[in-house]
Every structure is written in structure tokens, then in C-alpha cells.
Specification:
Layout (H helix, E strand, L loop, with lengths): L1 H12 L8 H17 L6 H11 L5 H8 L6 H41 L6
Helix pairs in contact: 1-2
Organism: Albugo laibachii Nc14
Protein name: AlNc14C23G2333 protein
Pfam family, one: Retrotran_gag_2
Amino acid sequence: MHNRTQPRRQVNDFKMDKGGNVLEYLMKFEENCIKMAAIGDIMDQNEQVILLLGSLSDDCDSRVKIIENIPNIDMRQVKEMIQREHESLQRKESSEVALKATKTFLKTEMGKLQAAGWYKK
């Protein structure tokens, strides 16, 4: 009996850490669902969606609220939406890092020009 209840407990108790990687979390959640199915405890799509959305960290609240308001959404659609949002945030973060590096570089170069007397404010 323990072998049957343990995977269910893992899925029910599974929570994403604040600041955690949502894609890694999705993979682990899916692994737990597969373990359950392997022993005959199959969750329907709706239950999986509810458990997944309820277990995401507070960082994902805005995504969860949007997804919750979409009627008849299935697990595949939820995963796609979360993945697209994650990729969008990654692109935004790398753009911000590049912009910050460019600003720092320009300030440094302007400082060098000012020190050399080539540029005055």
C-alpha cells in the first residue's frame, strides 16, 4: 500500500520554491504524475492542472490567475503558456543585463575621455 500512496503524496505535497526554475519544476511535476500512472493511480487532466497551478510559487501568481480564467484549458496548454512566459522573461532579463553592461561601458569610456581632456560636460 505504501508504494501506491507515496507517489500521490509526493504530487500533493510538491511545491515550487520561491525563485525556482519553473521549467525544472514542470519536469519534476510531470515525473511524479508518470510515477503515479505507472502504479495505476492516474489523475485526470483537470486534477493535474489544479494541482500544478496550486503548487507554483508566489512568483507565478500573475500567470496562475490568467490560466485559471481560461475555460477548458488542458495540461498541454498550461505547460505551453508557462514555458512561453518563462522564455519571455529570460529574454527580457538578458536584454536588461546587456543594456546595463552597455551603460556601464559608456560611462567608463566617457570618464576616460573626460580624464584625457577630450570631452567636457
